[in-house]
Every structure is written in C-alpha cells, then in structure tokens.
Design a protein that fits this description.
Family: In the C-terminal section; belongs to the transposase 35 family.
Shape: globular
Protein name: Transposase
Domain Cas12f1-like TNB: 308-370
Structural class: alpha+beta
Keywords: DNA recombination, DNA-binding, Metal-binding, Transposition, Zinc
Number of helices: 12
Strand order of the largest sheet: 2-6-7-1-5-4-3
Domain Probable transposase IS891/IS1136/IS1341: 180-280
Mean pLDDT: 88
Order of helices and strands: EHHHHHEEEEEEEEEHHEHHHEEEEHEH
C-alpha cells in the first residue's frame, strides 16, 4: 500500500477565512485543554473515575463539552477529534523516546485543522482551479495544479506565511516503484549540493538566489521600521513570505532529487554528518570570543540553504536501504589508489593525487570514496603526507 500527499493553495473569501481561523482556534484550544488535563490533573481524574487519560476518555469528555459550549459546537467535531488523536500520538512517541514532550500550541504558529476523507468532496472546475467542500464551511476554491490519485483519507488545512493551504492524504496511489538494487555514493556539498558517484550533479534552482537577495533587502527595510507600527508589521510579513517561498522551493527540489536517485539506485550511501554541530555559531562568549565569526556565519547559512538534513530524511523513507559511513578524509582520499593527502585537493573543484597522478572533479572523487566505504566498510585508506600528522599527532 502506498501513501502520497498533495498540497494546494486555497483561495477562501472573507467569510471562509474567518471560519478557518475559528476552526483553527477551537482545535488549538482543545489541544491545550487536553494537554493541561494530562499534565496536571491526570491523578485526580484517575482517582475520581478509575480510568486512565487517553484518547477515548478525552473524546468522551469532548462530547460533553460540545453540549455546553456553543462556539466549540460550531466547529466540526472531526477536527477536534483529530487534535486529540494527534496529542495521544505525541504522548506515545514521547514515551517511546521518538520525540519531545508535547507543548502548548500558539496562535499564529499552529493554525491548522484536519478533516476525515469521507467527509469532503473534491471537484475540478477548469484547467487551473478546483473546489473542495469542507464540513460546516462549504465549497472553497483552490489552485488545482495536478490531479488527485488514489483514495482520499484526510485533508489538513493550515495557515502559512504564504496564506492558507490544504494538504490531501491519499492511499493506494499509482506510484512508480523505487529501485531495490544498485548502490550510489552521495557527496553533500555547498557549491555543488549533491554529487553522485556515477557523475550526476544536482544544483539548487537559480530562483533561490533571487529570493535570497530579495529577502536580504526586505530584512534591511524591516530593521529600519519602528516596532509595533503598521509598516513594521507589513515588512515582517514580507520577510516571512520570502523565507517561506524559498523553503517551499527548496523542499520541492529535495523531493524531486531524492525521488530521481531512489528510482535509479536501491542503496544510498551518505556521510555521517552532524548538521546541527556543523552549523553551530562561532561567536563564543564575552570571556572567550570566537574567531572568523563572519566567515563561519556565511558557511552556516550556505549549509542550511542546501538542506543537508532534509535530504537525508527524505532518503531514509524513500530509498530501499541507506548506509552511513565515516566522513573523515573523503575529500582528501584518492578514489583510485586510496592514498590520503591534503595536498591532492587543489581547490574546491579539482583533485589531483600526489601519489598516482589520478585527477578528477573533487566532489565526484569524494562520492566515489563514499561508495567504496559503503561497500567495504572495514577497509581503511592508506594515509600519506601531511594528513598522516593529523591522524597521528606527536
């Protein structure tokens, strides 16, 4: 069984947008009340009723609450039940060590609500637009950029910096099977985000550079605005919209890239990189200030712009198998003879081995080394030259 998500931009009118905000607010209230009940009052509840606090017991109390409060009853009950299910799942993940402790939701940050697939209807109006019927809200237009495939299971409406959007979850989709055989080494970089061991290079869309320049200008405008003014609010929304657009383009590129890789190669071999540690600030403290802070800040921004961790996450659920290898000296090791020498890396793009004379693109050479380490993880490369002193300090 295959699952797939489809996300579209909604075009609500003023009354529908007000209904969206009301639904998101009530679902957020239900989450926060249920979280407080589980966190503060579970002992009293257990002593009073003899039951444990879980989704079933809280859903029963939600039904009683809807009979007493009008504005909660005005919102679809399914959305509120999905909020309770999400909280119950968050607690399960926390107790299994898969996530942090559930936190309260905030207005403007967690404006989202979910419907069951059997409650909604989707229709195409023309080549560009479609509409969806949501319970207690009605028909809402959305930009239908592609057709839905499979059986509709749920629909989630959420507010982003670019406006309202709806995501449909479908199962039994007609998806081309990913490969199960063949291995490829993947080198993640900054100038070349992804280089494969077969010589294929993937670069970010040029549109991201344009948006980055626009975002920098918008941030300078925001810095000159007075906090609390209408002009400051407008400038802040402008910056948030540009950042959200860049994130959307980057995520779309990551999905397309990882899908192409996994359709051609069953095993993806990557370096074991700690992105959070690599992008830590170098500013230091007042007592021990850091050095080369501006250069490190630029490197951190470049690494985060590529989205190394996001690519790794997508590979883990798309690829048939993912192997992580030791990243040390992959850029200084010759993929032909195995010699390690920092002088072989002439510059960012060129690699010329000082031992055997092998020359290749530096990123391609690193991808070949990653592939070799994934296939033969017990073989250690021979260390020569200046790199030997780094491995065996005196």
């Amino acid at each position: 069984m295959s699952f797939r998500g489809f996300t579209y931009r909604l075009k609500p009118n003023a009354l529908q947008e007000e209904a969206f905000l009301q639904s998101a607010g009530v679902c957020r209230l239900v989450w926060n009340l249920a979280l407080e009940q589980r966190r503060e009052h579970w002992r009293n509840y257990q002593a009073r009723t003899g039951d444990n606090l879980n989704y079933v017991t809280q859903a029963r109390e939600l039904t009683a609450l809807r009979r007493e409060v009008d504005f909660i009853r005005a919102v679809s009950q399914t959305c509120q039940q999905y909020a309770l299910k999400a909280l119950d799942n968050a607690y399960r993940r926390f107790f299994k060590g898969l996530g942090g402790y559930p936190q309260p939701k905030k207005k403007g940050v967690n404006d989202t609500f979910t419907f069951n697939g059997r409650e909604i209807t989707v229709e195409r109006l023309n080549s560009r637009w479609g509409r969806v019927r949501l319970p207690k809200i009605g028909w809402v237009k959305f930009r239908m950029t592609r057709n839905l495939t499979g059986k509709l299971t749920e629909a989630t409406v959420s507010l982003t910096a670019l406006g309202w959007q709806i995501g449909f979850g479908c199962k039994d989709c007609d998806i081309r099977d990913f490969a199960t055989e063949g291995a490829v080494g993947i080198d993640r970089g900054v100038s070349v985000p992804l280089m494969l061991s077969d010589g294929t290079a993937y670069v970010l869309p040029e549109r991201l550079d344009v948006i980055e320049r626009q975002a920098r200008r918008a941030q300078r405008v925001l810095a000159r605005r007075k906090r609390g003014s209408n002009r400051h609010t407008f400038a802040r929304k402008r910056v948030a919209a540009l950042k959200a657009k860049a994130a959307r383009i980057r995520k779309h590129w990551a999905h397309e890239t990882t899908t192409a890789i996994c359709r051609n190669h069953g095993t993806a071999i990557i370096e074991r990189l700690r992105t959070r540690d690599m992008t830590a600030s170098a500013a230091g403290t007042l007592e021990n200030p850091g050095s080369n802070v501006a250069q490190k800040r630029g490197l951190n921004r470049a690494i985060l712009n590529v989205g190394w961790h996001q690519i790794e996450t997508l590979l883990f659920y798309k690829a048939h198998r993912v192997v992580k290898v030791d990243p040390r000296f992959t850029s200084q090791t010759c993929s032909c003879c195995g010699a390690v020498d920092s002088r072989s890396r002439k510059n960012q793009a060129s690699f010329v081995c000082t031992t055997c004379g092998f020359h290749a693109n530096a990123d391609h050479n690193a991808a070949l080394n990653i592939l070799h380490r994934g296939n033969t993880p017990v073989v250690e490369p021979q260390v020569t030259g200046a790199s030997k002193r780094k491995l065996h300090p005196v």
